Amino acid sequence: KKQAEKAVHQKKEQSKTKCRKARRRHINLVAEFNRRQRKNIWLETHIWHAKRFHMVKKWGYCLGNSPTEKSYRACYRAMTKHCLLQDLSYYCCLELKGKENELLKQLARICSTDTGLTFQEACCLSGRFEGSLNLYRADRYPEDTLGPVTFIWKPRDGSENRQLWIWMHPALKQDILRELKAIFQCSEPEEICITEPVTTSIQEEKQVEVVTSCGNKRKKEDKEGEKAVPLKKIIGDGTRDPFQSYSWIAQTTGIVISDRSMEILRYRLIGPLSHSVLTETLKAASVQTV
To answer: One GO CC term of this entry (predicted)?
Structure first.
């Protein structure tokens, strides 16, 4: 009798574990992936890298470190003869908005013409080219180096207000952000990021809807039934708490600093066929004026 009761009890415990088919369902996979990203954020290409690379957890992200197979010759061949793509989306992006004169005046304090190009270089200021330079603490050149960054201006639209994006390594983000907030006196948060439950997409809803027209399909319910908890949308990146402010404004000058990390994807193409790949991939949209 005791053995029979024990066997029944074990069966009940085992029944709590979902079968592989249920675990691999799209809505369950998304919930599991979101749970695994609570500490280390995944890039958009994480699944592809996870199948082919040894993954490491650095700077709040889960990144591919080294390939699981011997692909060095293939990568070298792609760089020299074809095209090689790298995912640099883990690089952090800070966005600055405000009057061009005010931006250039304060940004000149954290860089120097002795090191090369600056933010006010003509070719970069027009927005046609991306620039790179080393940043320093305000009025401290050549001491107190913050680190190398790349930047690009949004092309002029006839207004005196400009938009600037600065890209940096995640290890340098907090120091550079603190220095930018200090020189522009952006202390008051403009927006605070709060996670909110989001509904599933139309395709996900169609997968779980009852199809009445065909009589051979029915809805597969979990143990929670229709009262399943909606999926949480993960907001923020590995270098920022989701509940921290992500935009600051200066009351005197109106300069706005926004943290756009993980909101803009960034890829690097290396090789002689990089331009051809971009030409075949990107298609110009037809602009309709009303």
So the answer is: nucleolar ribonuclease P complex
In angstroms, the Cα distances linking 54 to 46, 64, 261 are 11, 6, 24
Residue 107, both tokens: 């940004």
Residues in the chain: 290
Please list, in sequence order, all residues whose beta carbon lies within 8 angstroms of the beta carbon of residue 249, skipping any fewer than 6 positions away.
186, 188, 190, 255, 256, 257
Nearest to 238 by CA among 97, 110, 46: 46
> Which element (helix H / strand E) includes 177?
helix 173-184
Q: Are residues 137 and 250 in the same domain?
A: yes
Residue 81 domain boundaries? 71-87+270-280
Do 27 and 109 sit in the same domain of this protein? no
Which percentage of the chain shows pLDDT scores above 70?
75
Which tokens is 41 given? 């954020």
What's the whole-model pTM score?
0.70
